[in-house]
Design goal:
Elements (H helix, E strand, L loop, with lengths): L6 E6 L7 H14 L3 E5 L3 H6 L2 E4 L26 H13 L4 E6 L1 H12 L4 E5 L15 H22 L1 E7 L6 H9 L4 E3 L7 H13 L5 E6 L6 H18 L8 E6 L11 H19 L5 E6 L2 E6 H12 L12 H27 L3
Parallel strand pairs: 1-2, 1-4, 4-5, 5-10, 6-8, 6-9, 7-8
Antiparallel strand pairs: 2-3, 10-11
Helix pairs in contact: 1-9, 5-6, 6-11, 10-11
Amino acid sequence: MATKFRKIGVLTSGGDAPGMNAAVRAVTRAALARGVEVMGIYGGYRGMIDDDMIPLTAREVSNKISLGGTFLYSDRCLEFKEEAGMQKAIATLKRHEIDGVVAIGGDGTFRGATDLAARGIPTIGIPGTIDNDITATDNTIGFNTAMTAVMENIDRLRDTCESHARCNVVEVMGRGAGDIAINTAIACGAVDAVIPEVKFDEDACIEKIIRLRREGKRNFIVVVSEGVEDCSERLAKKINNITKELSEKENNPAMWVETKFCRLAHVVRGGTPSLSDRILATKMGVRAVDELLAGNSDLIICEKAGEIVTTGIFYSQVLDRMYKGTLKEGMLEKCTEEQIAEMKAIIEEKKRVFAETYKLLCDVTA
């Protein structure tokens, strides 16, 4: 089957993630080792439409494994969502004799990949997103590095909180997923975390802070996922105001836990990818090439229980939407009863893990 492929394209799309460059490197070198040329497509799907691409050689991807961001750049291309835009992109691929595509990104990237596959361009997706919000895989490229960046920044905030007996409510990225927030909350010794997956009790959180303050604790960190809307700044003001009122009522200035708000935002998306992200990106990149050359298409590469596996893009989209409560009418009709049962089991397991992880955070708060 390998002789069918003369040349493949590789792109990065959507939000950048540390490790994307490592994945492009792995795709390039794995393909070249198998006698297949590689074209790097600049700016995601827009590069297909605008014919903005470059041949990638082994030397072209040298020293890229340690770079954050994506040297192929990224863009969210609305034109590609339209049939006319897709046909422009396909015409570009054919003009360059590109026989297949590896698309690195998140759910939006995969929607584009499945559109290409449906129109005769073999395509494999690799999950590259710091949010870890692709339900079909345990880990996405960039997730580990982003958590490390959050942890390092919160550690710095905790130092100044300890010095001044303050609280910091820290909002972290993650879109609609609380993976970054809950894990970094545990790693940083946070007093609580606010994530979409677990119901949050504001009053109980504030009561905990007051109790711990009475016991002599000086620094407090509350980590909030950006997926919980209208929370971070409001919660910071509420903690500040309630503890200040308490200190005045008791005539005890020490009970005022002055509270600041911090939004880390895009600072956590950049930086040198961690060891685990480099390895994951390499494994996924090589597997993506092998799947293409084996004649497979419309798949994403996943990590499940430490193993690199594949799953259908449509299956992953339905699973994602089922988990996030955004299923479109008729989507389940295209799935078998066995697939639906499997997806429900995956979702229940994911919910169980979140509940247990939040309980772990509560168990070590002191």
